[in-house]
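Exercise 7. Given the encoded structure of a 273-residue chain, write a plausible sequence.
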């Protein structure tokens, strides 16, 4: 009997040391808030792919609702292929929880560094949309001109240059150091451009992150078109916004999120995972 018990303990310890006791994946969590976050994250990937914000590259994350020191993000995968089973959990040093061995996004450090620097941020999007990239390589500043971009400050959007940290990362944010540098450039704003690369957008919910990055790309396109027309540009004045009564009335409708969600679901064919 003692030998049998000793054998059982030895086997269990060997499993633990080998990392064989699996972490419950987020989509199977006992916490309904975590499962809901996973569902929203999958939907967000589908929407951003469908709206042309993501192609084969780009990623969105959400802070873990059960632990603010963790985040949820897909494994390295084209966004339109993401399913609930592809969502993994990372700590804020970008280490996978439970020792998963799946391939992760190279630029996951964008997300980890921002969540650590900005406790108010609940979702982060990194994308490579062409109109925001245009302003990342020009001395012409990106500023808000359309109503949908009212979350932007009237100050020019900051630009992060990956070459400034002297790391050989192929113009990527592929380390905690460059992630921290990017977070510092972002500051307390909602968006930072990345020279010749793309942008990173943050928001208080995954739904708002999706709507915000779409609006900011639209804003960049309209501003560029207006510049090409010539003449004086009329920028938005943030003092005209902040009507809490209107926000209370329109916020619960979620018309934009629901519309984009339904639109993306219609695009999914029978072979979609």
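Solution.
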């Amino acid at each position: 009997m003692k030998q049998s018990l000793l054998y059982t303990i030895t086997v269990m310890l060997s499993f633990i040391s080998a990392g064989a006791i699996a972490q419950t994946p987020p989509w199977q969590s006992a916490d309904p808030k975590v499962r809901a976050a996973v569902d929203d994250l999958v939907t967000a990937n589908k929407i951003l792919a469908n709206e042309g914000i993501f192609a084969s590259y780009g990623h969105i994350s959400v802070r873990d609702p059960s632990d603010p020191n963790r985040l949820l993000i897909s494994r390295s995968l084209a966004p339109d292929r993401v399913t609930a089973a592809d969502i993994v959990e990372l700590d804020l040093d970008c280490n996978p929880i439970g020792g998963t061995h799946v391939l992760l996004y190279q630029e996951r450090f964008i997300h980890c560094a921002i969540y650590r620097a900005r406790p108010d941020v609940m979702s982060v999007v990194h994308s490579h949309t062409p109109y925001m990239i245009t302003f990342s390589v020009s001395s012409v500043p990106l500023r808000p001109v359309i109503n949908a971009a009212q979350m932007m400050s009237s100050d020019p959007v900051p630009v992060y240059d990956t070459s400034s940290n002297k790391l050989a990362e192929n113009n990527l944010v592929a380390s905690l150091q460059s992630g921290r540098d990017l977070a510092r450039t972002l500051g307390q704003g909602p968006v930072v451009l990345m020279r010749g690369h793309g942008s990173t957008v943050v928001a208080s919910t995954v739904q708002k992150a999706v709507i915000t990055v779409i609006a900011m790309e639209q804003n960049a396109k309209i501003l560029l078109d207006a510049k090409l027309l010539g003449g004086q540009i009329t920028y938005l004045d943030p003092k005209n916004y902040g009507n809490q009564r209107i926000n209370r009335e329109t916020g619960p409708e979620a018309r934009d999120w629901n519309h984009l969600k339904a639109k993306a679901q219609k695009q999914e064919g029978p072979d979609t995972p």
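Remark. The beta strands are 59-63, 70-74, 87-91, 123-127, 159-160, 191-194, 198-203. Students should compare their own answers with the one above.
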